[in-house]
Amino acid sequence: MQAFSDLLERLILTASRNTKIELMVNYFRQTPNPARGWTLAVLTGELDIPGVKGGSIRRLIEDRVDPELFRMSYDYVGDLAETVSLMWPGTRGANRIPPIDDVIEALLGATRAEGERLVAGWLDMLEPPQRWALIKMVTGGLRIGVSARLAKVALAEMGGVEPAEIEEIWHGLAPPYESLFDWLDGKADKPSPDIKAPFRPVMLAHPLVTKDKRDDPDAVDPAIIDPDIFAAEWKYDGIRVQAVSERGVRRMYTRTGDDISHTFPDVLAAMDFEAAIDGELLIRAPNGEVAPFNELQQRLNRKTVTKKQMEARPAMIRAYDILVEGDEDLRSLPFSERRKRLEAFVEKSASDRIDISPLVPVTNLEALEAARNEPPAPEIEGLMLKRWDSVYEAGRPTGPWYKWKRDPFLIDAVMMYAQRGHGRRSSFYSDFTFGVWREGEEGDEITPVGKAYFGFTDEELKQLDKFVRENTIDRFGPVRSVKANKDKGLVLEVAFEGLQRSPRHKSGLAMRFPRINRIRWDKPSAEADRLETLEKMLPADPLSDKG
Fold first, then answer.
1. Domain assignment present for 434
2. Is residue 104 within 8 Å of 38, Cβ to Cβ?
3. 103 and 70 share a domain?
4. Which of 162, 172, 328, 431 is spaced 20 to 30 Å from 523 by Cα?
5. CATH number, domain at 287?
6. Which residues form the domain of 431?
7. Can you list the alpha helix ranges (DSSP code H) found in 432-486?
8. Which 8-state DSSP code applies to residue 544?
């Protein structure tokens, strides 16, 4: 547990991607099997300890300290593991800190009562940093800035292989991954599990225009807009997926390789082919158009899906590319050839659940820019530019593919509430709820329209935190209400990708990917936008039967 605890502590304290990779590489090289394999399972979210959850930890701590004191402390700190690790009354110290593999293997074989007893005993023995690591391990949700993808990149660097090689075999492996590490150590051949309908690592695009050059009219080189070099197609606002049907097995994966097949049996039923295609998972509206993203959200992350849910929100795939057809791997072919194969494939499938993303004529920069900012449907995010000669290469190579999203929507809103962050932000107010003006019973009032927790620099975070502390008017646990009236308030310029109606929100609206674009220290709160401004941004509702 000591080495595991040290690793987590160092990972959470650094924001550098390269440093995080280096820390993981060193750990994997220095730690023997099976400890490093169990650590990998924790980092990638593949470890599930059914007998001990967050509720178990709360019961254990409330049996040992004043429950009200714990709740107040938890409200203030905002993180269960951090709160419990500091408040736990154990003081004996451990003669021998148990290794992570002993801990995990004991918990996996334990009942709930046994699991809670084991965890309590270890918490008695350990120091606060190790307690924190233990609780994070058993409850999940590390929040240390390490994704499953980043952990696999570290594995690849450790073994001198490509991350794509690990992705291709990942779904055939299981913790503690001893065969994987033996291969990466050079002690054994590459594992070759017989995976039916495997995931193939996806190809990603670079932004054509970076955020810092969005306002630069010369950010795009007109020479790149050449129909003989690049194709353009619409980029839809859904979930990037890979649909694979091979050897009698049908699966659907996210771009990160998560298997979501069980959530979309209606799409799997339509995958009557031997192929692997790359596309966007969408919901089809009654009028045949694409439904807003929030309709897709209603079907995501469900363990089961009912017939009624599938009928109300029928899922479909808008295909972008074809990777495999029959026994033929097409990834080494140029995009021009793969596109022809994809068009023929979709036509042959004749399914209302699978269609193709249409190409956009490439003429000149002005025409493409107009298409990007005024797409034919609000569910289109912008354009994809793909070189005709590009092979399908895993990862994010520079040059072959570009994404050119439409400019974000912008509004000026007033900060209403602030909540403490997590991890290295736990001592700052970093999650902000904001609102706009609307007509109320007693005149203008602010109604909340969204929440954002990124888009600002570390220095701006300090400034925002200072404003919250100096202008607090009420407290609700880890949440503070701040001054927000016509005379006093902080205006935030908020960027977002889309807007739809939502009965779950007081304003009746929900934003897609809101983030803080700019802090308007210069703008009086009375001049913030009104709800009517947002309502004018609403697209027509494709879920209605009206055309």
1. yes
2. yes
3. yes
4. 431
5. 3.30.470.30
6. 409-537
7. 458-470
8. S
286 upstream amide cis, omega within 30 of 0? no
User: Domain count of the chain?
Assistant: 3
Check: CB of residue 538 under 8 Å from CB of residue 509.
yes
SS (H, E, C) 298-320: CCCCCCCCCHHHHHHCCEEEEEE
Beta pairing class for 479-482 and 509-512: unpaired
The one-character DSSP state at 63 is T
150 within domain boundaries: no
Is the same domain home to 371 and 418? no
The pLDDT confidence band at residue 546, using thresholds 50, 70 and 90, is very low
> Looking at the structure, do residues 383 and 469 belong to the same domain, yes or no?
no
The secondary structure of 235-295 as a DSSP string is EESSEEEEEEEETTEEEEEETT--B-GGG-HHHHHH--SSEEEEEEEEEB-TTSSBPPHHH
How confident is the model over 91-140, as pLDDT tens digits? Answer: 665 567 889 999 999 999 999 999 999 999 999 989 899 999 999 999 88
Reported as a single tens digit per residue, the pLDDT across 413-446 is 999 999 988 666 777 899 999 999 999 888 899 9
Q: Is residue 149 part of a domain?
A: no
CB contact at 8 A, 237 and 285: no
Q: Specify the pTM.
A: 0.74
Q: 164 in helix, strand or coil?
A: helix
Residue 449 lies in a domain: yes
Label residues 266-285 b or e (16+ Cβ within 10 Å = b): bbbebbebebbbbbbbbbbb
Place of tokens 């602030």: 418
Is there a contact between 437 and 530 (Cβ–Cβ < 8 Å)? yes
Strand extents, DSSP E, 174-238 = 206-207, 230-236
Question: Distances in Å between the alpha carbon of 154 and those of 17, 44, 77, 485?
Answer: 10, 12, 31, 49
Alpha helices (H) along 361-456: 365-373
Among 83, 115, 139, the domain boundary falls at 139
Contact 419, 478 (CB under 8 A): yes
